[in-house]
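W.,

You were right to be curious about this one. When I first looked at the sequence I had no strong expectations either way, so I just let the prediction run and decided to look at it fresh. Below is the sequence, 286 residues in total, followed by the output.
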Amino acid sequence: MPAFERVEALLKTISIIQSCEPAPEEILVHADGGRPAILEAMRRHHPEIRVLTSDHLVGPGGARNRLISAASHELVANFDDDSFPDQSDYFARVMRLSQEFPEAAMYSAASQDFEKAMPGAHAIAVSSGCGCIFRKSWHARTRGFVPLPIAYGMEETDISLQLHALGGVIVHAPDLHVKHDKPPPVEVSAHLNATVIANMALLPYLRYPLLMWSAGFWQVLRRVIYVISSGWPHGVWTGIQMIPSHLVAHRSEVARVSYRALVSWFVLRLRPRPLSPLASSPPVCP
């Protein structure tokens, strides 16, 4: 779990995870920027948990890179500090899922009603941001997450595209439930608005082949139209102005996928592919 400032949310998430049956083999937390409140809370309430930290902000993606690398096991369940399992047997379900789809690169949990309503497992293009399970060996084949202090618009989309281009399958499991304990925003701050717009330009710059940059342009334009039509215009022009410097700052992360991989990923975003589990998968007992 990446953690930044929300101490109470983090402690609640840890408590719920520890109450699962079975509990995970280990829990790892990353205190971004070495936030004293997070470090003190972990020392006081959970000295048994391994805590990683950084001397500067690496964002949730940079934290996840470090956490996955440090994990002792192949399957690494990911949560935000305000998201947690919504089933007491969550980790037993994860193990069963990993046996039903042993070749998958990632497993994605359902947190919204439309995700839970999907008729069975599907291959999807973009994993859930608040609840997914990485295969450590697959994640090691990617360039990892781009370390961004604010990662909306980049994080799960980028890693999902990288995995797809490598031939990895992301399995969405509608019966694997995660609760994101965060109310929908009433408004979006100007700084957040600006950063998301810049991030949405960063993804095509880093990953799309040059012939497909026009698709990236339309994605940014759609975001601008969406936030303005939603009554959140503050920061839009700042975000557009941020784009050139944002791209330059992260130019070392460029690793573009093939035209074919990108097109097939777009198609999968529109039409998730139904999957059937291996018939020979043995049951998993908690």
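Here's what jumped out at me. The CA atoms of residues 198 and 242 lie 6 Å apart. And, maybe more interesting for your project: Residues 190-255 form one domain.

Coffee later to discuss?

I.
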